[in-house]
Design a protein that fits this description.
Helix content is about 35%, strand content about 25%. The chain is an alpha+beta fold. It is globular and about 40 Å long.
Length: about 200
């Protein structure tokens, strides 16, 4: 990343941090306890969750698929959010969302998926990367997924799609959702016709 761009992004970090925490007030979400139970039955260790919450301002910048997380098993999700990398109960993750998709990496067997989860768990406590800078020791949500699965992807010869955002090639939740050759869709919950 060039130094000029890096300085601009770092100066704007407080703004992106604020945007990550702003949303219009809501009193209900599309997903409910039955979604949680269906997801809990379907998910396997290492599956990737892609979620969207309507009315969050991050949707303006990150599009249709603004958030990614890793299912760790036993009802736990590892995700990078504004507080950093955290473990979240699956039910809390689901109930605060309007759409949920789950994907299984086709390039990783159960052992590789367990290693990816182990990596993600080891990152709990690492700061959140509000400027999407791949060179920092702070992770944004999809970057955590990318790093967790980098070893398995390299071993399998799988190449992750990335996209140019603000002059930097980054891995986004959309790169998972739009690449069924590497990420098999296994679950969807949300409004009809939105999938």
């Amino acid at each position: 990343m060039n130094h000029y761009r890096q300085a601009i992004l770092r100066a704007g970090a407080p703004v992106t941090k604020a945007i990550g925490h702003l949303y219009l007030p809501r009193f209900s979400y599309h997903l409910n306890a039955s979604t949680y139970h269906a997801a809990f039955e379907m998910l396997e260790v290492g599956d990737i969750l892609i979620a969207k919450t309507y009315w969050h301002l991050t949707n303006l910048f990150l599009g249709k698929y603004p958030h990614a997380a890793i299912y760790a098993g036993n009802g736990l999700v590892i995700e990078a959010i504004g507080r950093g990398v955290v473990a979240t109960d699956l039910i809390d993750f689901v109930l605060g969302k309007d759409e949920l998709r789950a994907f299984r990496p086709t390039f990783a067997d159960s052992e590789a998926r367990a290693e990816a989860v182990e990596y993600a768990v080891s990152q709990i406590g690492v700061d959140y990367d509000f400027i999407f800078d791949p060179g920092r020791r702070a992770w944004y949500c999809a970057e955590l997924v990318y790093l967790a699965y980098a070893k398995a992807a390299m071993k399998a010869g799988a190449k992750f799609r990335r996209e140019n955002i603000w002059g930097e090639w980054v891995f986004t939740p959309a790169n998972i959702a739009t690449n069924p050759e590497l990420w098999e869709p296994i679950f969807y919950a949300g409004p009809e016709g939105a999938a």
